[in-house]
Design a protein that fits this description.
Length: 419
């Protein structure tokens, strides 16, 4: 069985990392699985790039600049990313594509594949699997719709655009995606929530949609001695550490302001915690974001080393994920795999990973008070911290390990080839 995964990158962004982990899991389980990307960052021989000479690099930069330019000029960035899918690369004649039995799309934005690129793949008459890492495939261009439900009817008057109207860019994109109905397409969603949303969509609702989570390497992301981890990062062995991290903390959807409000309330309600609690943060951020945190903040920046990220998880007592809308964030499953309980809002794919009051706490969405309740739940249960950590680790091993996820993909691929 030969599978080619198409992703904008292999390591840049959560969706790219998830894609590579899926491919790696399949390779470990015996599948001939490769990645075709436009931006390669790893040294993995199973990852091939379409950007391998001066002309292709120039073409890539132009496509990427067009994509980023549209976002900056025309989208309401406070609502997250909005992608215009009309500029991309034709990969239908690439040897990896031609030799494959299955074409598996992932996050193909950032100037990689256009709608025309997907139509070219359609002409090959090969089964196409599209693993959705966000909502873009069934919206008029936004990656997360937040409070907007227009993808269930007809996208227009888009709140994610600066200039919206009855016949705006979102409607144009939405209408141009109508050919998805003609694709030999099976949709995979990483969370149950995203499956429910895709099922309700006009563009993909009639397709076969299955839920398969993203994997984590549980042999790499694993518990270690908390004192050793803290010593590596120069942290105090005796403090209680609250961890918050994401690829881009500036994205309002990730809920940093709710973390700040909850910590402020915690400090006000329980001033004694100022002597025992500290905060760990990693990810892209502005330094001024941390000035109002009422606890000592240890900011480690945009970490590139998995080793450092693993030290962060193992140094923390709890991981906080106050996202307002999210699919199946890598950070949460990584934290669980390292044995660190998670406090989050009860949104998106978070309930797929967090068992309330077992390996974490699911707070009411947008409630600062309930997020504080989640932190206090951990503080009140510190005597049972070993049990919490064991339950967190067990969840990762049972549902998100490489072997478990690869098995589900292999079963799906086999059914499509047989048909």
């Amino acid at each position: 069985m030969k599978v080619v995964h198409l992703s904008s990158s292999d390591l840049s962004g959560g969706a790219s990392i998830a894609c590579k982990r899926i491919s790696d899991s399949l390779a470990v389980s015996g599948v001939d699985s490769n990645l075709l990307v436009q931006k390669k960052s790893s040294s993995d021989d199973r990852v091939l790039s379409t950007t391998n000479n001066l002309l292709s690099k120039l073409h890539y930069y132009l496509r990427f600049a067009f994509d980023e330019g549209f976002i900056r000029l025309f989208s309401n960035q406070k609502r997250g990313r909005f992608t215009n899918p009309f500029v991309g690369l034709d990969v239908s004649k690439h040897p990896l594509i031609l030799k494959s039995d299955i074409i598996n799309l992932h996050w193909i934005n950032g100037g990689y594949l256009s709608l025309n690129s997907i139509e070219k793949l359609k002409q090959l008459n090969k089964p196409i699997v599209w693993t959705l890492h966000d909502m873009w495939a069934f919206t008029g261009g936004c990656h997360y719709s937040l409070d907007c439900r227009k993808f269930t009817e007809d996208c227009s008057n888009c709140p994610s655009l600066r200039f919206s109207g009855k016949k705006d860019t979102s409607q144009r994109i939405f209408n141009n995606k109508s050919f998805f109905s003609e694709l030999n397409l099976t949709v995979v969603t990483c969370s149950k929530w995203l499956k429910q949303e895709a099922d309700k969509s006009i563009l993909l609702g009639e397709k076969k949609i299955v839920n398969i989570p993203n994997p984590v390497d549980t042999d790499l992301y694993k518990p270690m001695d908390i004192k050793v981890a803290r010593k590596k990062l120069g942290l105090n062995e005796d403090k209680i550490y609250v961890l918050f991290g994401a690829m881009n903390l500036i994205d309002e959807r990730k809920g940093f302001k709710y973390l700040l409000k909850s910590l402020t309330k915690l400090a006000s309600d329980s001033p004694e915690t100022k002597d025992i609690v500290e905060v760990i943060v990693f990810g892209k951020a502005n330094d001024e974001m941390f000035q109002s945190i009422p606890y000592k903040c240890n900011y480690f920046g945009n970490l590139r080393s998995e080793e450092e990220i693993i030290f962060c998880y193992n140094s923390a007592d709890i991981f906080i994920a106050p996202s307002l809308q999210d699919n199946l964030p890598n950070t949460v499953v990584e934290s669980l795999s390292c044995g660190t309980p998670v406090v989050s809002y009860n949104v998106g794919g978070l309930p797929d990973m967090i068992d309330h009051l077992e390996n974490g706490y699911l707070a009411q969405s947008g409630s600062v008070e309930d997020l504080v309740n989640g932190i206090n739940w951990y503080l009140d249960n510190r005597a049972n911290v070993n049990q919490l950590r064991i339950k967190a680790r067990n969840k990762a091993e049972k549902y998100f390990s490489q072997g478990v996820v690869a098995g589900q993909y292999k079963e799906l691929y086999s059914s499509l080839i047989q048909n």
